[in-house]
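Narrative summary of target 7.
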Amino acid sequence: MNKTQCAKSGLSSAWRKIFKRGGLLLRSSARAVVCLRLSHIGFWCVALMGLQLVFARADQGGIRGADYFPNVKLTTQDGRTVRFFDDVIRGKVVLINFIYTSCGSSCPLETARIRKVRELLGNRVGKDIHFYSITIDPQNDTVETLKAYHSRFRAGDGWTFLTGQREDILQIQKKLGLLSREQEAGNLQEHDLNLIVGNQATGQWIRRSHLENTKLLAGLLEGLQIGPSTTQYLADYRKARTRLEPPSRGEQLYYSRCVDCHSLGGGDGLGPDLAGVVNRRPREWLRRWILEPDKMLEERDPSLLALKARFNEVLMPNLKLSEADVSALIDFLGRAK
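Modeled conformation, tokenized:
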């Protein structure tokens, strides 16, 4: 990092010394980004705003192209053959995640969350921004299976589900930094749950948690674009309600685990409206539904089977919550208005 780059970054002299001593390179962008040299990927970058991990190559102006990304063949849920680099990411702003349709815990939650991001971005998805979900279980996730999954979650236009050869998909995951050793060894349940957003044309790639706030994800995707933002999903802070007390544990859980599929008085979504649910259902049934819906399904609980049929076969995932968390969540649902 030279003095001119440091001055433009607005970093303190102490930080500049650390970055210079560590062999770091500052990339020019709307936000100060510092890049850390790593052996197998080229450069990993840490965005000072939000500590977002990004990879790029300094020797190509931060842009990874066809010499890095595999151009392997994939197949869409509609049976169309595409190439990963040429057709999926080249010159595009994208969100990419990896799922498998028989996953009963993390994948449904992640898919529901991405659907919420899609709603926030509206008709820009498919035009300015593109969503891709790639199966890590191509042997079982056929084109027909992916098409049904796409329909079940009401994914809509601009969000494509892809399958292909296992080795090709593993190669894509490696290049995106989203392959766990456990999954590579054959344990699908231990696959990397993170997703990645990026702009291939500018070389910006950011890895985020599958539990990321949906508005932050939508904002990240808009920030990767070239041109003005038009989405109107952020409220005016001057109209915000003043709040003195911190959110309860139950409220935190609702907004981090439930809100992408459910509402409180806003009507049904991918799952039922939860307003008044504590009065409609016995507490013990609610406890088990939140704690172990997979076991209830195995037992063929009649109420759960009715919900499954009513909501297009979208199943409540096992959120891996503790008994204390479940109790806190039920208490919040009981108090919510």
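Residues 106-121 form the longest helix (16 residues).
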